[in-house]
From TrEMBL:
Keywords per UniProt: Chaperone, Isomerase, Periplasm, Rotamase, Signal
GO molecular function term, any single one: peptidyl-prolyl cis-trans isomerase activity
Name assigned to this protein: Parvulin-like PPIase
Keyword Chaperone attributed: yes
Signal peptide: none
Coiled-coil segments: none
PpiC domain mapped to chain residues: 187-284
Classification via PANTHER family: CHAPERONE SURA
InterPro entries, alphabetized: OMP_Chaperone_SurA, PPIase_dom_sf, PPIase_PpiC, SurA_N, Trigger_fact/SurA_dom_sf
Amino acid sequence: MAMAPLVGIALTLGGTVNAQDASGALKLPDNPQFFAKEDPNNRKAKVVINGEVITGTDVDQRVALIVAASGNKIGDEELQRLKLQVMRNLMDETLQIQEAKIQDVTIDDAEVDQTYARVASQNFGQDLKAMDAYLTRIGSSPASLKRQIRGELSWQRLLRRNVQPFVNVSDEEVRDVIKRMQESKGTEEYRVGEIFLSATDENKPAVFENAKKIVEQLKQGGSFQGYARQFSEASTAAVGGDLGWIRVGQLPTELGTALTSMQQGQLAGPVETRGGFSIMLLIDKRQVLTADPRDALLSLKQVSISFPKGTTQPQATAKAKQFAEAMQAARGCGTVDAIAAGLGAEVVTNEQMKARDLPAQLQPMVLGLTLGETTPPFGSIEDGVRVLMLCGRDDPKSAAEPNFEEIQAQIEDERVNKRAQTYLRDLRRDAIIDYD
């Protein structure tokens, strides 16, 4: 379904311009001047989809969520493109909610509120008022986020009822996957994030330019998960673009070739593939069916100091050096609390930290520690300086054998997602849409 341009009334300088000449080619000025601009205080309908209105306010409030997640680093040109994409997403969301009502799939307000409260808990320690205030402050609203939650819940329930029961995976298929995994034992597998933008021969150059701009925003600190949710046309968009653990052979050749040369945390793309362009993020990598040291369960103590406002770099360096020397003198985790108290430092203990959940730069450093040792100090004047002390470590005994039920569920999910794309495409095709 093509997206109509969102424009107001426009006139051009230099007299009247004919719509087209005898050959059918449009005669349009290179630099049209617009005599009417959109009034942000006049919130008219942007799109009416099957009788339901999507307004400029709806778009702006949803865009505000993405801008905040990207650290307010989105430029004006990117912002306009983001608004168009958010409009497309709101249209899909509206279709999904409408289809749920038609199919008598009910999402109670209490269920939406419960999910909203969980988001508040994860971000604001169960403080709903703080969550509400934050959304208002960034230019969004609780209603906007709750509508997005309702759309996701509606679509998930529709797929469970109308698609999932008709997807079958035979035992033989699962056994074939397990056999291939066992034959691949010790080879690399990768956890990959993807953003896929579809393209045709006609719009390929424009889509490629859009993809390049997304990569630029990601390199400047934009949230990959946020961009995947809003821009990706793959079924993984709902989970922030996470493809899960895959092997090179499961990807198109173009993507597999790029993947093998990537480092953890690196971006690749846009890479042209069949049907469009892909942007990839290498989240992690490991060896198939092989114990990974990063699965070790660690007991850590984090000791941190902060700097008063106005502290200079030399002053911070001197204090950090003194802090590091004191930590090196600590003889094991039993004495660190007393030493930290003498320094006015804060101690936080985590008894169940997987090494792979640490930042990538810290993983090899922490795994190289012996019990009672600390990392070199790290941090900044703004955030303070901290060290990690290793208090315990339980290494993984052996790699887990493939789980039949988990693999079966993974294959089912892949097939459900493919059918979900077809389902949504049909809803778009049958929709009655009026643009303002």
